[in-house]
Amino acid sequence: MRHIPKMVINDLSENVRHKVREAYYLIGIGFFASFITPFAPYSLFFFLYLLSQLKFIGCFYLYLNESRNNTLLYLVFATLVLDALAHALFHDLLLWTFFFLFVYCIKNKVSLTRKVMAVVVGFFLVFVLQSVKYQYRNIAWTNTSLSTIGQSELFFGMIAERLWSPEKLLETKSNELAITRLNQGWIITRVMNYVPYVRPFAEGETVEAAFSSTLLPRFIVPDKAIVAGGAAKMERFTGIVLQPGTSMNISLLGEGYGNYGKNGGILFMFLIGIVFSLAFRFLLVKSLQNPTYIFWIPFLYLQVVKAETDLATTLNYLVKASIVMFLILYMFRKVLKVEI
């Protein structure tokens, strides 16, 4: 098993050499889904969101191809940046940037020293982003008349100000906000101090709801409950009431403890880890037949890799992303007569 990734990477460039058309198809589907999302019914939003992520998978195919279209790669990344600035939400931008760096390292066989340097620079840039995010978000969300160019000038102006004035990065208040937001540990600590002393253990209630919501579609169980999101779980398991527009969650570890306590939480994390690892192993084994399957790992684990997400979010995303992936693979094979 441990030799599979090396074997796949060795065959990857050769396998993707003639898949330019397939890359264009994936990018086209992604752009089309992004374009029609504002006009689609709410029930299709998540499906279209998943389809919109295909443009990044297409970029992986295109980047490793010798006849790649760099202009198209820049266009995809530019839309990712503009979308992040428009919504003042940077999760997808950061994750897909790091995923692309992984592919870059595969193609260019980057040395360990450069990888470490890239990680250090990456953490520094994330810290800078975190220091301006709240200020930018307050302006972007309240000033709805701000144009795309205005948003870009405002954001990059704030970044430049921080870089040219390093002392602002060392401000106590700014650092406290950044460290608090990046540190999931304090939320888990809050859960352990709140449960069961103020609220009792959930005894598996949110876990059962997550599995039933994910595995049983609404047309089979039309009256199934809507699984509570991060705000509801933060209030239930920590007593913290989030302000509108604030995104926080108790994480898998916090949910495991909040339901089953210390020992039960350890077993919960072990079992959930097995579920995620089996899906990962399946992709690695399939990649022996088709090395490009390794490109789909970021697509499936986009929400799973986030530290704060709860079971409902991670499980729901993994299952539905898997369905979309197999649907796309089937449609390409049967309808377009190409193998991706």
Describe the model:
This protein is mostly helical and about 350 residues long. The protein contains 15 helices and no strands. It has helices at about 5-15, 20-35, 45-50, 55-65, 70-85, 90-110, 110-140, 150-165, 170-180, 185-195, 205-215, 230-240, 250-285, 295-300, 310-335. The longest helix is centred in the last third of the chain and has 36 residues, at about 250-285. The relative contact order is 0.11.
Ranges with pLDDT <50 over ≥5 residues?
Answer: none
What integer is the average pLDDT? 83
Shape: globular
SSE order, as H and E? HHHHHHHHHHHHHHH
SS field, number of helical segments? 15
- Tell me the strand percentage band: under 5%
Helix content: over 70%
Content-based structural category: mainly alpha
Biggest β-sheet strands, sense, barrel: none
N-to-C span: 23 Å
Radius of gyration: 21 Å
Question: Oligomeric form of this entry?
Answer: single chain
Number of strands: 0
